[in-house]
Amino acid sequence: MANDANTETDRDDDTGGEHGWTRRLARHRTGLALLSFAESTVVPIPLETIVVPLMVGHHRRSITIATAIWLGCLVGASLFYFVGLWLADPVVIPALEWLGLKDNFDQMTSDLDSGSLFWTVFLVSFSPAPMQLATLGTGVVGGNFLTFFAAIALSRGLRYFGLAVLARLFGPKIAELGVPTGKLVIGLVVVLLVGWGIMQFI
């Protein structure tokens, strides 16, 4: 009976069983955490382009997915804080100048210096904008690490677990449409990437 229950769960999570790669990814907590770590450090594309369709297609595991990417984000953000704190002159500033982001970074550090560190980091982290400038900038200005960590943890927690709750609510309805999860994931990734690309030029 246990095997039958497991089979039923897998069938619910991956309609038709045609795209086992999505089920494997949804269950691979370390892989999801590494994806989130990359997104919070060196990859500028929002992680939601992958995890939103993954959560919708595997709504039973949406909380697990959210937990894995939340933890990966916290590690990545903390790393970049200390990179900014310890390696500003030899690494961070030259890299930003080479990428043409120095002016944006100067504006971010000005905001962090003059305003509320918590709310500046919270708003950047909660928005779809890449948060690397905020994580590096907080380290460069020597902002309080615990305040910084709390802002990242709360903002990304609300963002990721909020998506997970929505997936739990609407995932079963979408599953009733009978679209194989693999195709659903690929289709939503394309839509989200196109939307994200358009936003970069507005």
Question: Quick one: biggest sheet?
Answer: none
- Strand residues, percent: under 5%
Mean pLDDT: 82
N-to-C SSE series?
A: HHHHHHHHHHH
Spans where pLDDT lies below 50 across 5 or more residues: 1-18
Strand segment count: 0
Class by SSE composition: mainly alpha
Number of domains: 1
Taking all Cα atoms into account, the compactness measure Rg is 19 Å
Q: Whole-Å distance between the termini?
A: 55 Å
Level of helix content? over 70%
Give the number of helices.
11
Give the overall shape, derived from the CA principal axes: elongated
Walk me through the structure.
With 202 residues, this protein is mostly helical. 80% of the residues lie in helices and 0% in strands. It is built from 11 helices and no strands. The chain has helices at 2-13, 20-27, 29-39, 48-57, 62-86, 88-99, 102-114, 117-126, 132-140, 145-175, 181-200. The protein starts with a helix and ends with a helix.
